[in-house]
Amino acid sequence: MLLKRLKLFGFMAFISTMVLVACEDDFTEEDFLNQQNRLAMEKAKADSAYLASLNADQAAEYISALNASGDLMAVTIVVREDGAPISGATVTFTGGEPEAIDDNGRTQVTASATTGADGNAVFDRLPIGRHTILITKTGYASASAQVNFGTPAAPIAITTSVNGVTKTSYIAPLKRFENLAFPMFSTDATSAKTATINGVVTIENDLTNLTPEIPQNLTLKADLSFLVNYNSPSGSVSVSQYQLDAPGLGSATVNNTTGAYSMVLPASASGYANLRLIVPELTGTQRIAINAIDDGSGNVVMIPTGPEFRNVPTRWGGNATGFTSVPTVFGAKAVFPTPPAAGKGFTFDFTAQPRSLTAGTINTTTNDYLGSDIYKITNRGSYTGTPTVAISGGGGTVTIQPLARMRAAATTITRTAAGSGYTFMNVNLVKVDGAAVETVIGDFAVTPVSGGLPATFDPSTFINEPSFGTNSPATNIADAASFKLTVTGDGTGATVTGTISVSLDRVIISDVGSGFTSAPTITLTGGGATTQATIQSLEFPVQWNLTPNNAGNTVDYAVMPSDLYLYFPPTPTNGGYTSSSVNYHSSGIGTLESSFQNLYNSLTVSGGDVTLINPGIVMRTSDFWAVKPQVVIEDETPEAPEVYFYISNSTTGEIDVNYWNDYGNGYNTPFQLTIQPSITGAPGTGAQFMLEHNFNSTSGEYSFVGNYSRLSGGSGYLDNLNRKSQESDNISNTGIGLPTLQSGNVYTVNVTYGTGFKTVNVN
Q: What separation, in Å, do the N-terminal and C-terminal C-alpha atoms of the chain show?
């Protein structure tokens, strides 16, 4: 009854409006808007008189019905090109709130109008809510925008008290009159009001040269949102996603060779301001010379082998963050011949001691520790059933292969048949095993609608249900051949279908096997995989047997070195460290006899070689480590000279000595200084120095006395292999501001990405 009253009232108001408008001569837009406002006030009075008899819920329902019929808002769209009105443009509104607005059950309103000679299109009856506005006219770029007019105002409560009796009545809100101005742009090149911006885009992704690089496959776009003009009396209007649909308007492709681009943009005689160039964030690598790099745990450690050229992951753009340091890497190094030692060439041979696997479960995409072994699932894959798992490689064997366990969840549900006769019902996720035995692994209750399934399922009603949605899949599922969705309850005929996401949950290793000297390979096959899961072994530590090796000795050992210890190099998950501890094992059976013995104290010199004090034992590292350790031998003597030099001529790249830090000793022949580039492939050649020596006939030792001659400073050496220092970009997080664009003008806007932000710390 309430809606019928509303329709009758609205129809009468509409007829009254039409009659009043038709009776006016020379009726201007301003007259029309004033007339609309007067009629709206009269209608609001009539509505309020009716609302006075309603309670709060009835009044709210009535206001909602008024809005659905368009009685609470009128909108005028003003279409212009460079300030001049455009007639004959079609303006279409599509939208409204998702609720029925007529007896036909429509869920949205669609309304169209054509602009008149004044460029205006008037919509006197529109529901308040979200709308898409599309403006089209032949010869012009189509314009579209998303507009939100907010929500309709609630009825206004008025409380009065007469003779001690309090009464609450309601007043309808006044009808809103909103105005929005949209520009359109001709696609006719002879009359189009456009401007052009040209420029060059550069990036610094190679700091070892002086020439900027060109980013590849880059597209630039313009932000045109400032072209829409509106001043909402209600203060509730918001406009977003203003776009123009015309080839080459507002976007440009950057030339991969030159970095040049050219973009055509809307313009006007007076100029459009506040437009911006949207510059995408870029990711890639940057070639840079470094001395040290983050070891993965936040510590910047020196590269053991010396400076290197590296391609470091880097981000560029207004939102990019990270490390900006550009290290200084001197382009040359001093090389002296290694002086003779009391003995030289001794080392150890290292062989991995076979061991068993560690039983356990691998179930995360981060690090899973099975004892000292580290695995992780790098890809959970996509399946319809359970795959087969196999362990191979690593030098060992297992009798029982690992088992796979799956995780599954229904991520979408669609009704295929409503069924009938249900008073209660469940939607079930079902596992089917190889023997066709079905097991429900998750379910949730559904409230029947008219005895059957609802037409749709709101994801928010099941996203946290076990086995449904993305938040809580069923896990640890064994022996699955397939999965499906079923409906159970006290009725018949209801069916659903949907998307079931099946992936690897875990791999269970129960048989530890034997004979493994390195990380095994874990392989998954079958299971109806679209993509097979992958498991990576990050660490597989073993103990290492040490066997003295004097085969490479070039000089007999007269005495032991000053120190001797083991170096365990960094691994993907652990930093490097040193150790002097070994275990003693009896030869043959390998029984542990003594642990944590000092390596140095276990050795002696015999016949010019370094040998075991007790030849009957086998030495093995006390530590388990994933990569082969190295032996570090420190000799008491001799010592090579140390020199510091500099670029004496920055133009030619010549070198000269700055000062000597140590003259060296222990040489049995004269020695000279050799200058080499600090990194293979770095520039610089030709530097030569002649050193003066003294010879001690008693000791047979040549000593450098500090005098030298520079025969040639060479050429091309660099004081820093990184030729570019840190350079800022001209890009903010909202892009690059464009100049005020006037019709027919050409502007230059260059884009400089600069040196960006490295995602790892280097030095």
A: 79
Q: Has this prediction a pTM greater than 0.85?
A: no
Rounded Cα distance, 705 and 117, in Å: 100
DSSP of 338-371: PPP-SSB--EEEEEEPPB----EEE--SS-EEET
Query: Residue 541: which of 618, 598, 621 has the closest Cα?
Result: 621
Q: Is-contact 711 688, C-beta < 8 A?
A: yes
How far does Cα 159 stand from its chain's mean position?
57
The enclosing H or E element of 92 equals: strand 90-95
Share of the chain above pLDDT 70, in %: 88
Helix (H) or strand (E) holding 67: helix 56-68
Distance CA 434, CA 480 (A): 7
Residue 120's pLDDT band (cuts 50, 70, 90): very high
Contact (CB, 8 A) for 669 and 638: no
**What is the pairing mode between strands 276-278 and 300-302?**
unpaired
Q: Identity (one letter) of the amino acid at 14?
A: F
Task: Give the pLDDT of residue 82.
Answer: 79
Q: Predicted confidence band at 391 (pLDDT cuts at 50, 70, 90)?
A: very high
- On whether the CB atoms of residues 430 and 489 are closer than 8 A, the answer is no
Above 90 in pLDDT, residue 97? no
Each residue's pLDDT tens digit, 432-465:
999 999 999 998 888 999 999 999 877 556 666 7
**Which residues does residue 468 pair with via DSSP β-bridges, in sequence order?**
410
Q: What is the DSSP string of 543-595?
A: -EEEEEE-TT-SB--SS--SEEEEEE---SSS--EEE-EEEEEETTT--EEEE
Residue 54 pLDDT grade (very low, low, confident, very high; cuts 50, 70, 90): confident
Among 24-38, 284-298, 396-410, 611-625, whose mean pLDDT is lowest? 24-38
DSSP state of 304: T
| Sign of the dihedral defined by the CA atoms of residues 586, 592, 593, 599, in that order | positive
Asked whether the beta carbons of 265 and 742 are under 8 A apart, the reply is no
Q: What is the dihedral of CA 94, 99, 101, 104, to 10 degrees?
A: 100
Query: Helix (H, G, I), strand (E, B), or coil: what is residue 62?
Result: helix
CB neighbour burial string for 18-34, b if at least 16 within 10 angstroms, e if fewer? eeeeeeeeeeeeeebbe
Longest dimension (CA), the chain: 131
**What's the burial of 246, exposed, middle or buried (CB within 10 Å: 0-12/13-18/19+)?**
middle
Q: Is 747 exposed, middle or buried (0-12, 13-18, 19+ CB in 10 A)?
A: middle
Q: In whole numbers, what is the pLDDT of the chain averaged over residues?
A: 86
Q: Check whether 668 has a pLDDT greater than 70.
A: no
Dist. CA 323–CA 576, nearest whole Å: 24
Q: d(Cα 439, Cα 444) in Å, to the nearest integer?
A: 15
What is the model's pLDDT at position 488? 96
Q: Which of 127, 131, 12, 14 has the alpha carbon at shortest distance from 65? A: 127
Amino acid symbol at 495 = T
* pLDDT at position 1 over 70: no
